[in-house]
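Task 17 of the worksheet. Students: predict the tertiary structure of the chain below and write it out as structure tokens. Keep your answer in the requested format; marks are given for formatting as well as content.
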Amino acid sequence: MAGGRAAALIHAQIVSEEPAVVRHRARALVDRWDSVRWRAEARLASVDLAPDLAQGIGTRRWFRGLGTFVGLSAFSLAFWPGFAPLEAAPATRVDDAVRDEFRSQMIMPLALGGDAGRQMGPTAAVTTLKAAPERPTLQLVATLVQGDTFGRMLQRAGVGATDAARVERLVTAAMPLDEIAAGTPVDVTLGRRAAAGQPRPLDTLSFRARFDLALEIGREGGVLSLERKPIRVDTTPLRIRGLAGESLYRSMRGAGAPPSAVQAYLRQIGERIDLEGGVQPTDTFDLIVSYRRAATGERKAGELLYAGIERNGKPRAQLMRWGSDGQFFEASGVGEQTSGLLQPVPGRITSSFGMRRHPILGYMRRHAGMDFKAAHGQPIVAVTDGYVASAGRAGGCGNAVRLNHAGALQTRYCHLSSMAVSAGQAVRRGQVIGYVGSTGLSTGPHLHYEMYRNGQAINPSSVSFVTRALLSGESLERFRGVLARLKTVEAGAALADLAPAPAAARAPEPTREIDRAGVRTPAI
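Model answer:
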């Protein structure tokens, strides 16, 4: 103990107690400040300074929050520096020399003392012209826009009303005006006007009326007359063949196939062959598109006519467009297949097949079909081909149409406002058979759709239809003949330039009924 006290005494003599006291007081001040800060934070947290104005609208708390918002907004606006635009420093320094250079190049009326190319303004020696001289002729291009008439287009270009009416009659005698495509450019040449204030007379007018016909109107002896200029056109289809490579799309585009034809090709071939793994780089694609080339150099590609793909010289798929609806058929005469359940209306399903509580009767009952949300009067289509078994009132189903389909299937469409078919009528897939309503036991406009197999109700979503078009007899023979002739077209033959026919062998313009009757186009 004695030794310990001696050590403490010696340490107290060496280290002063004042720093320890300062540290103790500083720590006490920090603890006191933390206590005050925590109490202030807790008190401020309990005060609702910024209530949510989207809740409790109209209450005292909401009005207090509104007052806070208005006050803070007014405080911010009061100390806002201003709304005047800030002017940026000029990009270049403008001194007197630069300003004089700008003045020498500016455009300003001489009457206002403007400079023009370092020339001074007018003086007393300047004589004012009575009238500015007019150009003897004006050459311009007018464009026929969508929804406009040929005559209004000419008058906007400066052609007088009398000349515009004469041109319309001349062009109408050559072809219907509504066959002139929108966007067609018309070259117009106007002559010197007879007197001031009168429209300029039309000297010449020419335009491409059709791909195979150009029209030119000229004035001879003060009379406008029309000249038809038939253009030789070749309709040999364009055939493109090449290797599929790493990318079938890029290979076809690289070979010169039009984008629309490539898209149609991939869509048709993709329905028969897996394009991801079923096409090898060594396979050969073969497509034929309708194509027209004129002797004047214009070319126009049309729709896809034939789509094929070969492997080792043997065809894997051969499809040709056939019929008025443009459907593609295989070489065997089998057309496109349509699969999947066609929804009778485009609305969403509000009630599925199975047990549910009936919305009107109020008890659990099996729902023998599917309900589709639809507006009153919305068309309802047949899900597949069939015959109308009945069309009329059907108790709680209201106005209903029942269709018989292949495979002992039946479909029924209930609560219709009106029906578009009658019993015994044949219907096609997608044909309108009625319109949405709310007849029978219904709480509002919707479609109740049922399906039966052998008289037993089944879930409509469990059935898919597959429809294929088939050619037979004379139609199949004609189809195969056209396909054989189409495949004789040489690849790239249509890309050669078409030489204009000599005057003696030039193809005449197609004969019209008015020409057969001996009626000539009058010269006006």
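Marker's comment: Residues 137 and 191 are 5 Å apart (CA to CA). The two ends are 143 Å apart (CA to CA).
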